[in-house]
Amino acid sequence: xxxxxxxxxxxxxxxxxxxxxxxxxxxxxxxxxxxxxxxxxxxxxxxxxxxxxxxxxxxxxxxxxxxxxxxxxxxxxxxxxxxxxxxxxxxxxxxxxxxxxxxxxxxxxxxxxxxxxxxxxxxxxxxxxxxxxxxxxxxxxxxxxxxxxxxxxxxxxxxxxxxxxxxxxxxxxxxxxxxxxxxxxxxxxxxxxxxxxxxxxxxxxxxxxxxxxxxxxxxxxxxxxxxxxxxxxxxxxxxxxxxxxxxxxxxxxxxxxxxxxxxxxxxxxxx
Length: 271
Prior knowledge:
Blueprint: H1 2-36, H2 44-138, E1 143-148, E2 153-158, H3 160-163, H4 167-170, E3 173-175, H5 188-206, H6 212-231, H7 245-270
Antiparallel strand pairs: 1-2, 1-3
């Protein structure tokens, strides 16, 4: 738009100069005719005088207007060049801003993509944990070889006792010899493997910063069961070392409660 406006202005100014030149030339000729009362003639001397007059008056005037027109053209061209440079500078700034916006958009898109990938991974792990928990619940009638202090003999104890977090009953139990127990539902290896898979999935969740809250909920939901199974040597893996500090503090609470139950058990047996 500025270039179009400048071109129009230059055209109007040059036209005005051209008209002024014609008007000035006509005015000088008219003044000459009125002053010297001279018309058309075959006298070469008069034409020579007329030419000298016109050359001495109209010529310089026309040259002045031509010089002014040239000067005006140069000024307007310089102005147009300056405006073009300013527009070019603005265009460069816009391109810089556009690149910055594109970079921000790209970074945001990458961040969203990472978020979706992480969220999908978390959801997969959580679904796996839920599925394993359902499988464990379906095996609640499977038994473990246990030695019962109250009956002073080994016997099978159902997994349901540990899933129900019956600490009072577990306080009477310890690991027993499998060979001394005859029970078709005895499945210590399968139970141990299921809880190993469950624990591994929980550890995967623990290592994802975005899944901290879900890890805490799911770990706390299973932590006491892990603890009770460990009391009868039913977990064939190191499950305490990888735990977070909060879970370890809960383990101390469970240990304190279990010691309290066992102390009461001894008092009852002593009576």
